[in-house]
Predict the 3D structure of the following.
Amino acid sequence: MKYLSLILIFLVSVYVWLMLNFYTNDWHYIQPFLIAVLLVYYNIEDQRLYYTFATVAGLFISSFSGAFGLHAIIFIVLIFILKTLQTTLLTSKNILTILLLTTLSFLLFWFFYYFFNLIFDWNLYSFSTQWILIGKAIIINILVTIFLHVVYYNLVVKKHERQPL
Amino acid sequence: MFKQNIKVFFLFLAVILLFVLIKNGQIFDLGILFRSTLVPQQAANSLLSPPNDIETVYQQLLVENSNLRLLEKENEELREFLNFKEKTNYQLVLTNIISRDPVNNNIVMINAGQKEGLAKGQAVVVNNGIIVAKIIEVSPDSAKFRLLTDNFSKLAVNIGPSQKIGGVLTGILGLGMNLSYIPQEQELKKKDLVTTAGADTKIPAGLIIGQIENIHFSEEELFKNASVSSLVDYNTLGIVGVIISL
């Protein structure tokens, strides 16, 4: 069931991602794959599974882009940072922590996106610094992530937690 | 917990880097494995280095192609003649045009003559029995015919679907054909077919000549005139047939 839901999440992300990229009127700043990676990370305990999901998702996007591997590397670096934070500073699992981590991960994503380009000089990307659009998209991304997480937590996780009782 | 996280992180980072390197061909080219096992090396080499004489082969093929096209055209023409012969049971002699008169372009020489049964006044046809000329001079091995567009060419014709309207067809300086002596009361239409009348004993009736293009008439005149356009181009005639007996 766990694997099936992972495949389902991946397929939904692929569909949404292709749909948003089909019309290039700034909708591509919304990142369904990053949302999916974060949701999988928040809701699955198995370390290898969410790293694998992030890798596969990243490589999928990379296969469509000029710099192969950039997205995959950013995704696993983000997961690594989030996991490190959760094991050291932000150990609680309340909604505020999730909100903080989500915001941080979206900000870090763009930071790494430009940072890696600066270091490795991947000139294949056409970077446009439309900060306002990126900012708007980040807010939408965070809200979507939190909403889906809350929905999943309340409908699935809580129900299953109650079951043994 | 933290150590475990670092381990997994580096493991996946290594996996991604491996993918990137393989994809960029920096470790090894995966394609080499398939090429060397599935396709023999010789075949791959022959694809990479094309033969040197490709240019000459191409030119030879061009020449061959143009010859084949000519043959195809000739074959089609002959096939049409064959159909015409089978349909009508006329005795037909097929012949090639060998020259045109240097002074009058509408007089054409062919390489068949008395020996083949040609005689003065016979009809010269193309394709599916479209008459284009009449024989005017015959020698033992060759003959000359005058195209219907020549000024001196005259032929009795019938017009229209009922074939009841008669007229005389004359040529206009090798440029076209004119119908004259059509009674005023007869009704002509554009695109009406013009066919031979059969007034001449050596020319069968019903051979197609062309169709009416324009009609000219005025109240004061006794007869109507009409210009006739041919169904074939008289300047590109190649093989023609002569009807030697009806």
User: Anything to note?
Assistant: Residues 2-22+31-162 of chain A form one domain. Chain A has a mean pLDDT of 82. Helices of chain A lie at 2-22, 32-43, 47-64, 70-88, 95-120, 131-162.
